Task: inverse folding
RNA sequence: GCCCUGGUGGUGGAAUUGGUAGACACGCAGGACUUAAAAUCCUGUGGGCAGCAAUGUCCGUGCGGGUUCAAGUCCCGCCCGGGGCACCA
């Protein structure tokens, strides 16, 4: 009996379908188990062999749990909004909904091929109005809520209004400490103040508390493309596409107040089963630190500069200060003599992305000409510099630099010849900064001889006593930007009236995405929706939500996907509860995971669900890398001496030959054996000695891995590849074979190293394919793909099949 | 630059807590079966040196140090690949 995988797999897949074998009910006596794959974006390129790795692992586990008597929820759906479909629409005029549907159909067909046990009756798509109705609804709940620091949870904004009416905001200060009520200059207001404020003022105040709120933020604005760009679309201050200048631009943006949840997000990590690496990444992203804010007076100036430091004990070692180039003080304090230098430096910084600024190894900066005064020693005047390594958005946008104790400060001081004060005695060797906390302080006035750990408290107490600073907990995490100037995303259910944002009534949901004629951006960096008169005439918000909106809560919708009264019924969410096993890549380590944890916590606080962590256990599958293959091309141009007539040859050199030839040409005393051989070959081809031949340098080109067997190129297929571009090439072989070069890289279409699972399933069957993917090694590990090994797994399954039939047909258990 | 992660034969990988490095598989080589091929089965396979051979011997887990009776595993310092760094999702 042959192992006929085609008919076996077809038969069973058909049977599963007809019997709805994997349809799962919300009513069951069995214990529940929820196995989830990370939400895929249905890209136009389709699945490659890297994608299903996690899906196969979760599928096996879901089947295992089902056999163990669990009621297993194992759904799949699509994160269907996103930039690639919009970009495709701009370039080809195809509506994103159309291209997305097409991509999903391909995706589905590819998934079905592999024989997964998904309950497809629960499929969701974020771009369906019946889905994003509830994304909009949750947004409205966030908009209508605030974070009560006293109770450490989200509460209705109506409750806050009652508090304001009774006592003002003295027990609930503005989350943004710098905020002052417009026209009143108040940080704190009382009940009478609140009653005296007009509607707009009240709404502006409430906006400062809402969990989903509107503010202003800087974006990468490209005038020539008329659009806002992501950081990685900006390279050296110009757009990746087209190389146009990019500048920072302030735009009105929506945000989620995730910073209020920083502590809860940290604490929650202790209750979930994620890898330590994953917890580290999230902890570092949140970036909680404790220290102090300290005011420094500026010499001969009214203004003062506030720095945030985690090391207040080192205050007597401050040799200079650095403030962010975009800090508002820069304009006020820069001296005339330094103005030009500062302006030039700011121009330079404006051309750089935040990423470039942080990654820069070179030390750059400019002196403002101003000096700050050390509050503990007024004879110490400290030069104030600006530099790109200080970011306006972190801390106070200003740091006190202690070069003997901080490596970056030390290099800065060396670069600009700023004298260094040693406050840690023999712990400082003069050549490297030492960030120790164990030294006894010296050169530190009233702190001399005090251990550093003790001095931290002493200094904080002293500055608080003198009213020039305070103890401060700081977070690196910023509020999450929640709007995009794009078309293909969820519209905000918000209307603008007299500059105030009002929520649409929930009965008006879904607010559906209107048809547009053009997907290009609106005026002044607004999204495409700003081009639609019917939209703008209703004063509707023209931004749309970002990709992570729909994916922040999709795991809840799977529990009750057809519910048109609620995002998911409480009975369903109570039954399914947390995702028991979540499988996906580490690329989502901070973004998606933090946002969905935030949404879960907010929905929990507001009483809509009964758990405040979405994912009980997380497993990160490794990435399957591509194994690229290369051919080596050398062009030969033969010119006839008397006529100037040109003949061009493409010579494809086998890997070994290319290496030897390259070495040979680089060596001065070489015999040029290989070069001479090639020269001879070209002359033989020409059958004429009247030619002068010039060779181009050897170029390495990616070649499609699907026409390479191991390392050996299939020359006939190569000649037909890319519209027969290389049909007339000459091949220089080794032992009669063309051997390709190889390298491990990211799997990507442009590198011609993608392998389509469909072909492998057709050739070997889904079981072989699945087994091989699992056989590649631990699921958490990254590894390069190599199709060669699949033969062995296939032979194993064939052997198993054969042995099974031999045993059952010849043994005593006759013919079973 | 910062955070996370990985580096072991020709290849993917194995080696439980510091205790025989290279399981298993691919590939390759040789053999059996066959008119022949495919399929299947058997044997060998980290590298160097010595030996007709059995075998012996030295080297060997990215690099350089260290701890230990013993290091792929622990410590220190590097190098290289991958992921993320807030508008790719």
Result:
């Amino acid at each position: 009996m042959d192992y006929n995988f085609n008919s076996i797999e077809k038969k069973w897949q058909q049977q599963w379908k007809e019997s709805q074998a994997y349809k799962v009910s919300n009513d069951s006596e069995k214990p529940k188990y929820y196995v989830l794959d990370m939400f895929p974006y249905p890209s136009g390129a389709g699945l490659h062999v890297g994608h299903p790795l996690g899906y196969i692992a979760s599928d096996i586990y879901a089947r295992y749990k089902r056999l163990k008597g669990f009621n297993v929820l194992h759904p799949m759906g699509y994160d269907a909004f996103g930039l690639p479909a919009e970009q495709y629409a701009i370039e080809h005029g195809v509506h994103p909904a159309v291209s997305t549907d097409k991509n999903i159909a391909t995706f589905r067909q590819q998934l079905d091929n592999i024989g997964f046990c998904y309950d497809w009756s629960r499929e969701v798509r974020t771009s369906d109005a019946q889905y994003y109705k509830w994304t909009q609804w949750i947004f409205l709940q966030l908009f209508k809520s605030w974070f009560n620091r006293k109770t450490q949870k989200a509460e209705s904004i109506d409750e806050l209004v009652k508090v304001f009416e009774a006592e003002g905001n003295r027990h609930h200060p503005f989350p943004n400490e710098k905020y002052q009520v417009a026209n009143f200059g108040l940080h704190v207001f009382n009940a009478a103040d609140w009653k005296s404020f007009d509607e707009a003022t009240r709404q502006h105040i409430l906006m400062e508390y809402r969990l989903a709120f509107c503010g202003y933020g800087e974006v990468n604005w490209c005038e020539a493309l008329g659009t806002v760009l992501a950081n990685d679309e900006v390279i050296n201050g110009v757009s990746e596409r087209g190389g146009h200048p990019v500048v920072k631009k302030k735009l009105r943006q929506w945000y989620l107040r995730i910073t209020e949840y920083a502590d809860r997000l940290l604490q929650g990590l202790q209750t979930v089963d994620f890898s330590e690496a994953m917890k580290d990444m999230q902890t570092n992203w949140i970036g909680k630190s404790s220290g102090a804010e300290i005011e420094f007076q500026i010499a001969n100036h009214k203004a003062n500069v506030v720095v945030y430091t985690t090391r207040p004990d080192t205050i007597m070692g401050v040799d200079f200060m650095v403030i962010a180039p975009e800090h508002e003080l820069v304009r006020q304090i820069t001296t005339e003599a330094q103005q030009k230098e500062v302006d030039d430096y700011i121009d330079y910084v404006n051309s750089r992305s935040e990423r470039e600024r942080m990654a820069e190894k070179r030390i750059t900066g400019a002196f403002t000409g101003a000096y700050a005064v050390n509050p503990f020693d007024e004879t110490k005047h400290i030069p104030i510099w600006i530099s790109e390594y200080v970011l306006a958005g972190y801390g106070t946008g200003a740091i006190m630099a202690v070069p003997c104790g901080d490596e970056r400060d030390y290099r800065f001081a060396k670069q600009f010849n700023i004298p260094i004060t040693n406050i840690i005695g023999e712990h400082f060797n003069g050549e490297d900064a030492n960030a120790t906390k164990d030294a006894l302080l010296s050169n530190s006035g009233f702190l001399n001889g005090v251990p550093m750990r003790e001095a931290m408290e002493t200094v904080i107490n002293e500055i608080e006593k003198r009213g020039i600073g305070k103890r401060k907990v700081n977070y690196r995490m910023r509020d999450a930007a929640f709007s995009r100037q794009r078309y293909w995303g969820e519209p905000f259910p918000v209307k603008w009236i007299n500059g105030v944002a009002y929520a649409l009534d929930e009965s008006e949901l879904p607010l559906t995405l209107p048809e547009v004629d053009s997907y290009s951006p609106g005026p002044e960096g607004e999204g495409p929706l700003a081009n639609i008169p019917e939209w703008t005439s209703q004063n509707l918000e023209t931004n749309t939500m970002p990709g992570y909106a729909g994916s922040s809560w999709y795991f809840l919708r799977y529990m009750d996907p057809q519910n048109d009264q609620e995002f998911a019924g409480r009975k369903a969410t109570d039954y399914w509860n947390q995702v028991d096993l979540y499988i996906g890549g580490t690329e989502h380590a901070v973004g998606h995971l933090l946002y969905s944890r935030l949404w879960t916590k907010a929905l929990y606080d507001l009483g809509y669900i009964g758990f405040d962590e979405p994912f009980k256990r997380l497993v990160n599958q490794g990435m399957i890398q591509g194994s690229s293959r290369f051919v080596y091309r050398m062009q030969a141009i033969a010119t006839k001496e008397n006529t100037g007539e040109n003949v061009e040859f493409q010579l494809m050199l086998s890997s070994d030959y290319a290496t030897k030839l390259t070495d040979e040409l680089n060596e001065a005393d070489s015999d040029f054996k290989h070069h001479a051989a090639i020269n001879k070959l070209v002359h033989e081809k020409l059958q004429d000695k009247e030619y002068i031949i010039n060779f181009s340098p050897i170029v390495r080109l990616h070649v499609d891995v699907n026409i390479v067997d191991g390392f050996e190129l299939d020359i006939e297929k190569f000649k037909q590849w890319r519209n027969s571009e290389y049909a007339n090439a000459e091949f220089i072989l080794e032992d009669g074979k063309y051997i390709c070069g190889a390298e491990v890289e990211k799997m990507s279409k442009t590198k011609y190293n993608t392998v389509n699972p469909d072909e492998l399933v057709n050739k070997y069957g889904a079981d072989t394919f699945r087994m091989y993917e699992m056989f590649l090694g631990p699921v958490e590990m990254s590894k390069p793909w190599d199709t060669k090994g699949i033969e062995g797994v296939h032979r194993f399954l064939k052997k198993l099949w054969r042995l099974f039939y031999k045993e059952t047909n010849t043994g005593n258990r006759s013919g079973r």
